[in-house]
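Pasting two entries for a bug report.
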Amino acid sequence: MLGKWIILNIVILFSLQTFAQSQLKRINIDCSNQPLRSVLDELKAKSGINFVYSDDLVNDIDITCKIENNLPERAVKKILSGHNLTYRKFNSNYFVLLKEKKVIPDGFKPVVLKEDIPIETSNLSKPVLISEISPAYPFEALKDRIEGRVAIKFFINKTGNVSEISVESTSGSDILDFAAINYVKKLKFIPAEANGKPHNIWMTMSFRYLFQKN
């Protein structure tokens, strides 16, 4: 009995090592208007990945792509890209193909509304934003259709750089909160002034992430 258990573990370990090695192989595929089914068969032969899918997912899809020296999973992503298909991995080397959910609902577009919350200052001029970047809707939030409003408080020093960033009011989503924080980190200002001299100042920005009707 002990001998069978040892043999079984050796077989499992060998299988895992074989698959791990296959996943480190570099894949090269050059196809022009080939049926997706044929391309998946070629990828299986070169990588050892088993694909599970229903016929209606791959019928009438032709693939044109050039994959050079890519890891197997990256090759899969490239092949499926643009065809409304994605996958889930099961039991290490089984990839189940699925219809990709629409990231954005029909008739809507993702919007980030940014607003400066007024600063109460007696004799300081308001800092002037000179960065030419716009806040982006994080892809993870698009994918899961997350909306929310977050307010970020931050310190602008005499050189116009941002530091000491904190969430004043959370959106309830770490994804949106972190996106707003990362945006604020990149900002650059003409600093606040009093009597012609730069001053440190605290500032707050509000970000509202939502899907707006076209």
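Entry 2 (this is the one that rendered wrong in the viewer):
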Amino acid sequence: MRALSALSRDVVRELDRRAIEEFGIPSLVLMENAGRAAADEVRALAAADFGAGARGDVVVLCGPGNNGGDGLVVARTLFDHGLGVRAVFVGLPEELARSSADVRTNVRLWEQLGGALPTLASPDDVARLGSELSRAAVIVDGLFGTGLARPLGEPWLGVVRATNAAGRPVLALDLPSGLDADTGDVLGDAVHADVTVTFVAPKLGFERGRGPELVGRLVVAEIGIPRTYLDEL
């Protein structure tokens, strides 16, 4: 089978559109497939780190876009596998309220399991999170996906730096937050991932700029977009 070529953010966006509008696969299913594929890698990473001593829960950092929705699927899947997991929304409550219907559905499903989703926005919140991250079994970076093209602001910049300072295994969803998906530039700062589970295909930025040093071990997850669409592009 031919290896998948790296794609730009615009091509990835067009693949998503075609899969949803032409092929007819619901966007919520794509999100579910992405999160469940990543959860398998989180479990493997947590198991590999057990030799480092007793640790706390997996901490899933969810941003205001669909990458945060992927993170909530990860959290729910890990919970159903019996792992200790804590999900945190980084941003203001009104940003969560403005999120996509798919994200809001996954918020509801997570809360129906009894999971809390505290919002984190202030410097004090970031400081408290830093202490928690240093005890995490694994940190899951679900802050931003391929759409990010501007420098990170607060509180996300502080959370990225706290993640890097924690000294714990980090798994990034789709790409490390703060890495430009096309150029490989760092947008203020970026997560240093041990593992990146990217969806559909590698991104151009993984091979450019700072990408190679930030991505870590790369896993490409198939999430339901028809291979014929990829071949056409």
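Dev reply: Rendering is fixed now. As a check, the viewer should reflect this: Residues 27-48 form the longest helix (22 residues).
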